[in-house]
Design a protein that fits this description.
Elements lengths: L3 H6 L6 E6 L5 E7 L2 H8 L8 H9 L2 E6 L3 H15 L6 E6 L3 E4 L8 E4 L8 E3 L5 H14 L20 H4 L13 H15 L5 H15 L3 H18 L13 E8 L4 E9 L2 E11 L6 H14 L7 E4 L6 H12 L4 E3 L5 H42 L7 E10 L2 E11 L2 E2 L5 E4 L8 H24 L14 E4 L3 H14 L4 E7 L5 E6 L2 E3 L6 H35 L6 H11 L2 H6 L2 H5 L6 H18 L1
Parallel strand pairs: 8-11, 11-12, 13-17, 17-18
Antiparallel strand pairs: 1-2, 1-3, 4-10, 5-6, 5-7, 8-9, 9-10, 13-14, 14-15, 14-16, 18-19, 19-20
Helix pairs in contact: 4-10, 4-11, 5-9, 8-9, 12-15, 13-14
Length: 625
Amino acid sequence: MFNIEEELKKLPDSPGVYIMKDKNEEIIYVGKAISLRKRVRQYFQSSKNHPPKVNAMVRHIREFEYIMVDNEVEALVLESNLIKKNRPKYNILLRDDKQYPYIKVTLNEKYPRVIKTRQILKDKAKYFGPYPSATAVNDALDIIKSIYPIRTCKLNLSKNMSNFRPCLNYYIGKCQAPCLGNVDEDEYMKMIDEILLFLNNKDDKIVQIIEEKMRDAAKNLDYEGAARYRDQLNSLNVLKEKQKIVTASNHIDQDIIAMARGVEEVCVQIFFVRDGKIVGREHFILEDTYNEDRKDILSSFIKQFYIGSAYVPKEIIIEEEIDDLEAVSKWLEGKRGTKVNMITPKRGEKVELIEMVRKNALDMLNQYGDRYLKKHRENMKALEEIQYLLDLDEIPNRIEAFDISNISGVESVGSMVVFEKGQAKKSDYRRFKIRSVKTPNDYASLEEVLKRRFTRGLEEKELLKNNELEKNGFSSFPDLIMMDGGKGQVNIALKVLDELGIDIAICGLVKDDFHKTRGIIYNNTEYHMDEDSRGFRLIYKIQDEAHRFAISYHRSLRSKSLFKSELDDIKGIGKKRKVSLMKHFQSIEKIKNASIDELAEVDGMNKKVAEEVYNQFRIKEDNNE
């Protein structure tokens, strides 16, 4: 058993990172220190001088670890990586309230793709942006793909390409199908080079093509087509737009960072200046900043933002000098490869830029802060009601709900939805296609889903310990599990968790004769809640979301199965003919209603196969009558 007093005596007087854990071995805080011995001991000394947040954290610490490094810069990098990977409960955390899109050219792949992304990785791809309009990015990508038949699939074309089969885009002329191995790579790269020139604002070929199409449409009195091309030009111009605000320091790449503080939240605004022009901005809401110093908030933001950024500009302008400026500067210089100037201006144009960014942060906070804060408070009150009702030790910040969907046992699926602090966390949702249960059996299906979910979670926790994995939805365990059902479903969950040695509170959502939620069953006791209470509304929302998620997955599997059974089982219909039929008729219903002659007219079809298709659907109709 971990003895905190004994372990404190063993702490070294050297720089490093310390990791605080709770009773479930979850990482709840990560910090760096010049002296691990002095810094970690401070947490367990008199609590009089600690802010409330630190006192709350210390009450939950059951053990700690530390990693020694050679200097403060190494400690800073390790701390930032661990915070990003584990997102500890008591660290200042960045919540992406609005992530502007980038265009990514996957030069790290054979036969590159051109895609939209909101995440920049250090993967040798080429990124352009950020762009202020996601619609403009989507339109531009559609235009690029209409002009250049480049691939959109995620296939690894470094492998043996003879094993791949082309997708629908090949048959409709939107892709040359490099997956078949018959596309000259040099010719393909010429298309990518032209796209790169456009994205770098060094070539207007794409714009000229669209302008010509617009003029041709207008000449042919196709005014709707001309208007469509006009809208496409507008989208392209958003990507190429010359900025209204130009800094006096021409041709310098800068990031300008300032913040506005509300009652319980902080908005940090960052403006991107590239080649002397403001090309975009992002804003972030920071959580858990109560009683935190402005310098500490800015320092945390800078480390978390740039740890995930593929690009560091030559100059970073910040509104207030941070305490660990020297260490952060050295770290950023290591990422950039050249000197990075971190400036806190006192006068002149740069002070005006900081003021502009701060005003934007304040405006963003005024627009969204109150709404976010009100929603956050409502959610926390709802969680407190659930905690009080079930007499839980802590507020259930993370809740996972499970549901099963099937129709007569066909294509049974399970869903797992996740709510954190009362908000849906869709990135952690998971779907399960039931493998072991062949007949309608919700209990057995739930048992399979829970075993797969938590077995995977335990495996990934081990990988996390060895630093072999990024934290994700499986490695994060909930504070409360909600089952869609009563005692039977709850007992299944208790059995699975007991077999795996996991201790998590489990409740069931009980329904009345009209399939409406009437209460919660917990520890063999049924609890009723006022339907107008915050807690009940949150429970109902979670249950409804779990059901919706399961049903949507089930429907998608059924539609795929339906498409397969109605066309693929017809004699003489292979993949090419199926694609041709769908391309020609646009829907299964139109194929069903087509005559033999209409079916025979489709590219690749003949009268004999057309008769097979026609007769197949007529036989089905006769059998259904």
